Amino acid sequence: MGAEAIAAVLVMIALLWLIVQPMVLPGNTSEQPDDPPDMEETDRGRALLALREIEFDQATGKLSDDDFAELHARYTKAAVTAIEADPAGVTASDAIEGMIAARVATISDGANGFCEQCGARLPADAAFCAMCGAPARR
User: Fold this and answer.
1) Is 70 exceeded by the pLDDT of residue 31?
2) Are 78 and 43 in contact (CB under 8 A)?
């Protein structure tokens, strides 16, 4: 009986901590890159999914050859238009790589308010780092 009570108290404490933790420790609120959009969220993805769907419907006998030809032409045109409208074929990984490169450039420029030697935060008007004495690059 005593072990069950202790276990119940520990579970209640853990649940209470999970509820209170976001208020006590707000965590990192820095800007995070968005996840790449799902395939269904883009015009290109919707057109390609529609093509795949009508090919499946024709293979299972749900569409006649005439209907398939009409729908295939329509969705192929939509897919080609969406692919051509894609800005220079930039993929989500290319966009993320660009964001990383911009962040690295900001850090390596020393313009982010941190010491390049020790990483300590520098005041805006600092000429030298208060922690290690290294000159602040501006």
Assistant:
1) no
2) yes
